[in-house]
Each structure stands twice: as structure tokens, then as C-alpha cells.
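C-alpha cells incoming
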């Protein structure tokens, strides 16, 4: 089963899932812990990345720098992330779908 994405959709993470930050030149990878809730906050990019913010929950991500990478904890109200694992798209600016084994709709 898949979840069709749209603006304002709220989701809950069902199992640890990989994400990426919004650095287009050097995107850093990270993950969200199960139970984390998030909301889609903007339209897809030309690369079909769909931005979301964390409503409540946790995880970690790596911000890739020119000289050194830094790992950060994801906290409530963190933003600037894109889906990675479980996200399927077909074209630029496409919302795509999420795999329901990783996420469930909460609102």
C-alpha cells in the first residue's frame, strides 16, 4: 500500500526511516525514530524532493560541511528535511508516494 502525498499531510513514522537534509550541493543523510510525527510543508522541488518538518519526535542527521561533517539531533519543530527511504516519484515537481510500511497518515 502507498500513501499519496499532498500539502499539509501529517504522518507518523512506524519504523526507523532514512531521510536527507535540504542542502542541494551536499545533502546529509539522517534518520527518524519510530513514533515521530511530521507534516509536509511545501510543494515538491524540481528534483521531486518533498519538504517536511518535525512536529514531535526524534532522530539524527549529518550536515556535510566543506571541511568537517557534523551530526545533529532532530528535535520537535525541526525543519528542512526531505523524504528518502520509502519515497517514490516519477518526474520533476512530482509529489510521489510513500511506502505505508514506514509511515501512516494521522491527519
Amino acid at each position: 500500500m502507498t500513501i499519496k502525498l499532498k500539502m499539509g499531510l501529517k504522518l507518523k513514522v512506524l519504523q526507523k526511516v532514512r531521510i536527507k537534509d535540504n542542502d542541494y550541493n551536499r545533502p546529509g543523510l539522517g534518520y527518524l525514530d519510530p513514533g515521530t510525527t511530521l507534516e509536509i510543508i511545501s510543494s515538491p522541488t524540481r528534483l521531486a524532493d518533498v519538504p517536511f518538518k518535525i512536529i514531535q519526535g526524534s532522530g539524527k542527521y549529518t550536515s556535510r560541511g566543506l571541511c568537517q561533517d557534523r551530526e545533529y539531533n532532530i528535535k520537535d519543530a525541526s525543519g528542512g528535511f526531505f523524504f528518502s527511504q520509502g519515497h517514490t516519484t516519477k518526474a520533476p515537481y512530482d509529489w510521489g508516494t510513500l511506502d505505508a510500511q514506514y509511515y501512516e497518515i494521522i491527519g
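note: The CA atoms of residues 20 and 75 lie 15 Å apart.
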